[in-house]
Amino acid sequence: MTSATNPTADTPRSVHRFAWLLCVTTFPLLWVGGLITTTDAGMAVPDWPGTYGYNMFAYPWQSWVFGPWDLFIEHGHRLLASVVGLLAIGLLITTLVTRSPGWLVRLAVVALALVIFQGVLGGVRVLENERLIAMAHGCTGPLFFALTCSTVALTSRPKTGSQSGFSKLAVLATLTAGLAYLQLVLGAALRHAPAEMGPWSFASLVKLHLAMAGVVTGHALAVAWTAGQTTGAGAAVRWVCRLIGGLVLLQFSLGVATWLVKYGTPDWASTWLPATMSAAVASGLTQTHTVTAHTAGGSLLLGLLTAMATLAWRSHMAAPSPEAAASTAE
Amino acid sequence: MGDSTNLEGLYIPAFSAVVATSSRRSTVCRGQDSVTRLLAARLLLSSWAVLVAAGCGSPPGFSIDRQLAAEAGLDRAAAESVDRLLTDSFGTPDDPIVPAALAGVIDVERVADAAGPVESHTEGVTTGLYRRHCSRCHGLTGDGRGAAALYQSPYPRDFRAGAFKFKSTERGAPPTDADLHATLTRGLAGAAMPSFQLLKEDELAALVDYTKYLAVRGEVERTLVQELADSDPEDMEEFADGEAPWVALLVQETIVQVAERWRSAGARVVAADEAENLDSPDLIARGKELFHDEKLAGCVKCHGEGGRGSGVQQELDLWNGRRRDFLAKNDALAASLGTLVDRLASTPKSSREQLADRIARARADLGERRSVGASLLPPQPTRSRVLAGGRLRSSGEADDLFRILHEGIAGSPMPAAGEALTNEQIWSLVAYVQSIAMPTGGEQP
Predict the structure, then answer these.
(1) Range name among A204-213, B17-26, B106-115, B356-365 with the lowest pLDDT average
(2) Interface size between A and B, measured as CB pairs under 8 A
């Protein structure tokens, strides 16, 4: 049995596997949620928790699968969200059955509470047809995903052997995760801008989002570099470090592409692109998935940074204090 | 968006809390607003205010074109009266009214489908189509000042000006439904306007009618404001009061006139049925010669040698020209105000009070104009399209090109050649442009 208080100790494998399952199921849910915002399909079903008067699970599958696209993704989002909710319950049950440490049970309770809250937010967004709540819903989803990433990191096998210098990485990764979340909120504000918003307000948000993109990119690359320099970093840290480095660059490119497919080239760049380009197809594959990939990429970056921060804090806590290290050396 | 769990007992308290929060939105927002004033960072402050405002607003409404009112010298009372009369006749973005005079021009049901917030009450039927697909760029009121307008090139169209670039009708005539439908399905290459080819036909038809509704409303507003600008002060006062019977009559007559213009758009389609053998090398060569003839067709002056140019034009388009002129007049008024103020000290006491009054009025007028000027999108240069190897903004079909050359492009510096050139000469230009431009029907991304 594992320690009741020490989050650096080994945890049951089944909990770790369940945490992985929850994490990898949540990411497609975020993608589909992003797709709904991209195509403004959030009101394709007017009621909640039912779907067009049916119990959500009893809604005729033919109407769903062969129905209109926005109904397909909105109802699909609800069903997938239910699966994630059930998996969150499953994680909690697994922690109880395996008599996991108290902190892990509490973490599973928080995850379950957050997914319920997120479900309610989604429901209220539909019932109120309110964009501000849609934005809150869009910002809570990535938070839940980050929590699942953190849970995966916390329940992984701790790295054994000499470890040092993790405190700097832990602080940097935590700070960067916070910045990435702020950037995500700014992105959500742009996506959920109300119809009445004027061009100057939107432009302020765009400038903030761009400035923040530079800040997050710099910090994320610094995290990747610091992780690479940290002595005793395990395979998990090295992997996450590579993924962060690659993703942040991809995310930057996707941001540029998102603007181009949605709003075309700004006047100062109007001669940069060839005159052979045709008009983008609204809600077409290119536009929809470029924009959605950018939002999902933001969530993934947040998740990876959270996982990195979690691993770094755990390694930092597991490392012997300088005094203990000195006495061991003697 | 509704992620759902099946744990009703758990979600009810949270649900109630969120609903309660939502119903108290206005109060909370006012509180947040006062807090944000304390923040030092101006940029952060404005962004936060934007987010807060998203949940604080009353139902959206149309508002008078302030630039138009300022240009016409309308006082506040008259401007408010125009606003009120238009709301009585055309309703609001959430609850539009199609005046009876527009029967046969604009379909009431379609406008209702396009108006209001995005909703769906029947599987596969979405209403609020304008807000779903258009308002982000064209603005809720069709003023071309949507949230994302500032960084677009060219700016999204201000429907209220009533000028549409790509159409089959005479330059000064409104477009036909087919023209608007074609722009919606094709999109505009090189501009932010996407192709809405994936929308259903009834959705496209609803957007066409809503665009017409906004354009007609704008045209009625413009006509009324111009009528007022030309009227004497007594009439202006009566209009501001809004009670005199002639005011309602004027509004009705204006709507009828504008409706008639739109109704007759189909009769003003430019005939373009003489095209034959556009691949003929002789015809293309003649077209090339004309294209480069600076005195006759003069295309080369803007589109460059061989149609390869994409130069910034000296002349601005209708919308940007109006903005530039408005801002220039503000500068001129400021200079003249400065002169008046300088003169005040040397003015004899007897006429000083009169001059002071004049200065106060000029200052108030300039203040209002500056406030309007600050809300305008900065004038943007007009760029000619690269024709050689480029994708044309119009369909590129021969008859479309003929009409564009014949009538020019409404609202843009592209002139009408119909007066100066014969139809045969225009067809030769069509043949040349088609020979150098990207073939039509290219792949969509």
Answers:
(1) B17-26
(2) 267
8 Å CB contact of B132 and A281: no
Q: Which residues of B are less than 8 Å from A48 in CB distance? A: 2, 4
For chain B, how are helix, strand and coil distributed in percent, rounded to 5? 55, 5, 40
Res. A247: pLDDT tops 90: yes
Q: CA triplet B27, B30, B35: central angle to 5 degrees?
A: 130
pLDDT of residue A80: 98
Mean pLDDT value across residues A240-252:
93
Q: Within 13 A of B44's CA, how many CA atoms are on the CB side?
A: 11
CA distance B21 to chain A (A): 11
Q: Which residue has the higher pLDDT, A200 or B30?
A: A200
Q: How much is the average pLDDT of B188-194?
A: 93
Q: Which residues contact B323 (CB under 8 A, 6 or more apart)?
A: B67, B376, B377, B378, B379
Q: Which of B3, B7, B120 to mutate to test the interface with A (most CBs of A within 10 A)?
A: B3
Three-class SS of B313-380: ECCCCHHHHHHHHHHHHHHHHHHHHHHHHHHHHHCCHHHHHHHHHHHHHHHHHHHHHHHHHHHCCCCC
DSSP of B241-287, one letter per residue?
Answer: H--SHHHHHHHHHHHHHHHHHHHTGGGGBPP------TT-HHHHHHH
B383–A68 C-beta distance less than 8 A: no
Q: What is the pLDDT of residue B310?
A: 66
Q: Which residues of B touch A125 (CB under 8 A)?
A: 1-2
